[in-house]
Amino acid sequence: MSSARKAFVPRTILLLSEDPTVAEQIEQALATYCLSHHIEWHTDIAAFQQSLIGARLQAGSAAHVDLFMVAHTDNEERTRETLFDLKRLKRWKLVPTVVLLKQCNPAFVRTLYHFGANTVIRYPLHFDALQQLINTMDAYWFDTVTLPYPDDD
């Protein structure tokens, strides 16, 4: 019996980061493994919510997000606020959230898990390490874990 990987299913990943370089690196890492997920990048949750208003007016339906990535890599306060804002809204509470940090202060990491982070990862210093990290995250979150189905809320 062969262990073939499941057919690729494109997912929607919302990346929240103020750093366009981080967004570009994550998109390049996904492309390296031919992971053609839809990445939507916004600087913060307010910009994302504003885009939803525009999308709802144009398409008549709300966006579906499969995974949040919060990458305010050098700003602990901004990271905490973003995670708090995401998890206080019922609509986004069940969506898995991965937080990327350059420094992993153990007390701060505990706070992030308390606020609803599903995974906290040190942001790699080298691009090849980021590529491997993205491939591993993809396999875990989209092939191994059963994600919640979207509500009608």
Automatic annotation (TrEMBL):
InterPro entries in the record, alphabetically?
CheY-like_superfamily
Its recorded name reads Response regulatory domain-containing protein
Q: Which SUPFAM superfamilies match?
A: CheY-like
